[in-house]
Amino acid sequence: MAATENLTSTLQSWWSDVKKYAKPAAPTPEAGGPAHLTLPLGPYEASDTMLGSGGYARVVLGRHRETGQKVAVKLLETKADAAKDRAASSEAAIVREVAALRRAGSHPNVCQLYGYFRLTDTCHAMVVELCRGGELFRIVEQYGAIDENKVRPIFNGVLAGLQHLHAQGIAHRDLKLENILLSERDGSAIPKIVDLGLAHVHARGADGAGYADRALTQFCGSRSYCAPEVMARLGYNGYTADVWSLGVCLFGLVSGFFPVDEASNRDWRYERLARTQHVHPTTSTVATIFMFYNRPCPLSPALVHLLDRVLQVVPAKRCALSDVAAAAWVRGEARPPQMPAPLAPPTPSADGATAAAVVDPPPAAETMDSSPQVEIDITDFLTRSGGSSSADWPQIDPSVYRSLGDEPGAMAAAAPPRICRQRAEDSVGVAAT
Question: Of the residues 113, 129, 145, which one is the last residue of a structural domain?
Answer without folding.
Answer: 129
